[in-house]
Specification:
With 206 residues, the chain is an alpha+beta fold. The protein contains 4 helices and 11 strands, in the order ββαβαββββαββββα. The strands form 2 sheets. An 8-stranded antiparallel barrel has the order 2-7-6-5-3-8-9-10. It has a two-stranded antiparallel sheet with strand order 1-4. The radius of gyration is 17 Å and the shape is globular.
Length: 206
């Protein structure tokens, strides 16, 4: 049986952060609102191993064996996305204009996420929704889906999320931080693709 995962708490660490959304739907639970600040690397592809010790294949196999299954999809039709946000009872506040509308099944959790457009620092609002809601809106993500396994490790105080894709030989890693200044202090895990739209999950979806 899939393990139940802990979702980020609803908290905004940075001073002066303004609320992004309001929601009156009791079945839609806002679990996070804040900034997403991250660095992202490609560890291995079928063409090249970008890891320092050339152990990308070992890491890929470990994630495939121990990782938790994620299936996620993106509602890229703007009109449909607006309708879904409205049907879920979510109101956008403080000039929050999401460019990414995502559905995700992570372990036993069903998650609805909104993000705006920034390279390393994006505003993000995250909600848990019911399985029924997920199944209703999942068809809207057809052609824009990602299937992968995720393994989370803590190395030298950094929480590293490693994603192995199920439909191709690709291993990505990312680290989220609370302050943009810390991005430059992170260890180099592979080929840095931070801010490169070609390597976002949204771009890799199909």
């Amino acid at each position: 049986m899939a393990k139940k995962l802990k979702i980020k708490k609803k908290v905004a660490e940075e001073p002066g952060f303004k609320a992004l959304v309001a929601c009156k739907n009791l079945e839609v639970n806002q679990v996070y609102a804040g900034y997403e600040i991250e660095k992202r690397w490609v560890l291995i592809t079928k063409e090249e191993d970008h890891t320092k010790n050339k152990n990308g294949l070992i890491q890929f196999d470990e994630v495939m064996q121990k990782g938790t299954l994620i299936k996620q999809g993106y509602i890229k039709d703007i009109q449909k996305a607006v309708e879904v946000i409205g049907e879920l009872g979510i109101e956008l506040l403080n000039d929050f204009k999401p460019s990414t509308v995502r559905l995700r099944k992570y372990g036993e959790e069903f998650i609805f996420t909104l993000k705006d457009r920034k390279e390393t620092k994006r505003r993000e609002a995250e909600f848990t929704i019911t399985e029924k809601m997920f199944k209703k809106y999942w068809p809207l993500t057809e052609g824009s889906r990602v299937y992968k396994k995720r393994l989370v490790k803590v190395v030298k105080g950094n929480k590293i999320e490693m994603d192995a894709f199920l439909d191709r030989f690709l291993l990505l890693a990312e680290i989220e931080v609370k302050d943009e200044k810390k991005l430059e202090t992170l260890p180099k895990l592979g080929m840095d693709v931070t801010g490169n739209k070609s390597w976002t999950n949204k771009s890799l979806s199909k």
